[in-house]
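REQUEST FORM: STRUCTURE PREDICTION
Request ID: SP-0412
Submitted by: Lab K.M.
Chain count: 1
Length (residues): 417
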Amino acid sequence: MLCTSMLRADHQLLASGRLILTMTSKRWKDDVVYAMSLNKLITWPIGVWPLQVYNIYSLLRCAVCICCASLIAILPFMEMYMGCTDVEQNIECLMVICCGILGVLKTTWFRIYAKNLINNYGSAVNDYMTIDNIKERDVMRKHAFIGRIISCSVVGFSFSGCLLYGTIPFLNYNQSNRINMTNEDTILKYTIPSRCALEYFNFPTSMYKIFCLVETVIVMWGTIGNIGNDALFLNITLHVCGQVKILRIHFLTFDVTSPRIYDRFNALIQRHRYLIKLAKELADLISFVLLIKLFIISILLCIMGFQLILALKVHDIIMVGKSLVPLSGFLLQLTLYSFIGNYLKSEMEEIGLSIYQSAWYSFPKKITRNVLFILMQTKFPVALQAGNFIMINLATYVSILKTSFSYFSVLRIMLEV
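STATUS: Completed
RESULT:
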């Protein structure tokens, strides 16, 4: 009887263990899906999702995205080269060209340097699989939630702008037909400025609506290459920030009375080094892209702001809307990179503050020497930089805004004179 009871107890213990393991496994899976499913949905179609199988099909999807972004840049350039645009249309063409260039650059760059993203996303999956602390899981879920909000915001805003630009040609075409204008007198406006380019290649005007629809799809696909890559990068950067915050908690609450103090503190040091390595990979990946992006956004903020001032002066509501949409989009991108870059830098710096606030005075001498090296390292934290010399943080963001608004003020005064 005793053996039977013990055997039943063992079976119950094994069953409960399996139940706990199943529930934990399901929770891990739910966390990974919650944190990464949206990014996968956005970036898998353009072939840059880091956890995909890198084969000929992913390369083909990437090539299609690059071709769409290239068309967004090439067609408006042809319009300007052929002299088919006025001053207002030149500004619009310049804006579209810059968006196409950024889409090509980001998609190509994230594909070439995919190893950096693969390492970071692989590490993120491992973090979700090995987490066993409720508070640490809450920190990770909080950063994943912020990442989802960022992805939904930038993608939703960009697609709304694409649909707006895709709808305007149809509205103009229907309005022209209502006032009985002939096809010869109608100046057709496409989603992408491309009227003269299409005429040069002898595309029939009878398929005008089809071409507008195709161009709208091209613009949306190229937008994923531009904005989707931003969402992919910003989400994994937020995850690294969350891991640094968890490490800060470990340093702050380090218990010197528990056994194996050297092994536990050495594990924290190794984790710190690993997170620095991941952050450096992200910073190296985005450095050149941020340099080009910062240059383009700085110029376009001035140009689009000038167009907005002119549109407000002549009370052109359509032009005001077409100016505000890209202007808001560029400001949104600049804001997100600046805030998250500043957040990453501050979290890296506060590692030293967390150690200082711990019971470091009770550490053995051998560990105290390691503490000094950590404090020295936090004086030079990893940060997002444009071209490895322009820090992307709130100070840079405020400086760009101040310069742009000063430029707007001068232009407004010149127009009123």
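NOTES: The first helix runs from residue 2 to 43.
Reviewed by: T.R.
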